[in-house]
Amino acid sequence: MFMRRAGRAGWTVAMFATMLMLGAGPVLPQGGPAPGRTPAEMVATYNTLADAILAVKNTETNIVKTILSATYAHARVELERARKAIKGGDAKASETALENLAADVAEMGTEGDNAVGAVRKRLLEGGHHHHADGEAKGIYDEGYVVVTRVAKQAFLDAAKAIGQMAHAPKAEALESAWTKVDTTWAGLLKENG
Amino acid sequence: MACARRAAPPGAVSPAERAPRAAGSSAAAGARFRFVDVAAEAGVTRVTWAGRPGKDHLLDSAGTGVAFLDYDGDGRLDLYVVNGWRLDGSRIVERGRNALYHGLPGGRFEDVTERAGVGGDGVWGAGVAVADYDADGRPDILVTGFGRNLLYRNRGDGTFEEVAARLGIESPGWNTGAAFFDADGDGDLDLYVASYIDCTLEDVPQAKPILDWKGLEKVAAGPFGFKGAPDHFFRSEGGARFTDATREAGLEDTALGFGFAVRAGDFDGDGDPDLYVANDSDPNYLYRNEGDGTFREVGVWSGCALDANGAAQASMGIAAGDMNGDGLLDLVVTNFSQDFSTLYRGLGQGLFEDASEETGVGPITYLPMSWGVAFADFDNDGDLDLVIANGHIYPQIDRHPEIAGTFRQKNLLLENRDGRFYDVTARAGPGFEALESSRGLAVGDFDNDGDLDIAFTNLDAPPTLLRNDSPGGSWIEIDCRLPGGGANPIGTTVTIRSGGRVQRRDIASGDSYLSSHDPRPHFGLGAARRVDSIDVRWPDGGHTFRSDVAAGQIVTIVKGS
Fold it and tell me: What is the value of pTM for the model shown?
């Protein structure tokens, strides 16, 4: 029962208008259209617009993947720090690394930090749902682009498990939690090319 | 105030199915709790206005807070009630006046608003937090509001002066929950103020109910579709001035969450105050104090930003307390109708887990729309019960009560039995039978009889003041004092041992939904007649101890004594 303003139509119209303003739009056909048929130039322009719309959607996927990849890469750094600190018995260093790792994994679950969440909220407020169909089927949370609900829960569970280790680090438990993160991440990469 | 996200939970039960108290327990049905609304006879009668009857804008339905305080130091609680405006379409009918009720002997109150000069200065009020921000020994009153905040400095002669602009905390915008706390450990009280949505007073009268509700009604739009407004953190410079140090302190509201309630407390047990912020429809924040005046937002991985399903909820109010006697603070966050209020059980080290289902809090709270909330021992049996203020935001739902109940709803009383909560509302006396659209909630022993009473604000109605007439167990209340005369300093923690049980309370300013509770820690003792030990941990880390103290009294403990 989400009550959000419908804005998808407005968004598309705005893009179309923008293209017209930029000079990429059609001119009136000189000979006029055949009766009952859309002028070919309009269809061509619409196709161009479709390319742009689809490209924008792909770009959105790519930027989110990039955000997640950067977070994952940072998580790996923290993982190595945690491993080293646990091995060396450095409680303070392992606590810091494990908390940072937990934060990174949590951010993978929420598909970015709070600032990214604000962008996602703005898009939703504008009526943009990257996976409208997937949301309806319960596969994605609202506005999520790459991280499925199942993956989100896996990341969040792992983040909490890692966070709980911060004050009582255990190498085996860390590896177990990280394996879940790695597997989930690999699955998302596979699903999203 | 966003709409619900979850389908009916598998464990949801009807009121009739809720578990009765175990046979053989000390509580015979109907006898354990009894609350009576004494607001009218006590003289607490001023209506709190809330915009238009149709609630066309969210401001019309957000409601206001309430606080128990002792502004004149006479040992009796006073009551402060924040007010909104009354609109008719786009016309302002009345700018509601806040009310300060002076507590009198015999449980009565006298309206001293005009004499005290705390009527709200024409601001559409929201919340209230009480604290002695300038350390002069007298409690001051912060009123958050739509447009600006007010800070009433207590002059000590029964009057107040408004100093928010002078001190730099007016903060234009829709300010909501607030909490005073010593964020940087320098001995003065800093201030966090949450904000809801970015809109102007001009937007409010023009708002129309345009949002489709289940294909049946048009209701007020939002919060989706509106931009969130940023929260603010004001660092105190010795109580003489406040500086906006939001970014510097790491408290930047980067999600632009729709902020409502704020509660400071030592959630990770490391001795300094952390901060929890309830956001409507966005993940809640847990700002962990790093011990150097900066904070780190750790809500998601620490387990108290989202529900068990990983979803952000439409959060309104906060209660913090040790509900299962393990020495750790637990949290309850109230949420929208047809969604659980969530109980986050403290695991230690600032970690939490969603225990709403197993504690019973989730199923009981599924249907109503909930706001103010408090952990308190209402039957004086030694554990913390829960009280929750309810009321929907859309009056239009009254035409379809079978779907989500009604606009006016009963408030809830949940009894704690060994860490599981049971709905005892129907057996809690006439005070819990009333239907209102309640918002603010504060708990305090206004008649000093050793049991905790409850004040609610209600939309477009006078407050409810529930006197606790329950035949409860023994009790003790602690009045913590500084040598200079300051009472119940924010951030103080009191731990007692009695009857083989350890109980803990902390003193906070800013709690529940836009409200502040009685600052005197209250403990139910069951059958115990004495308290083995009392440990007062002061905000500076010092301790004062007492041992073998008789129950049934308000004990004053002065720091250093």
Answer: 0.91
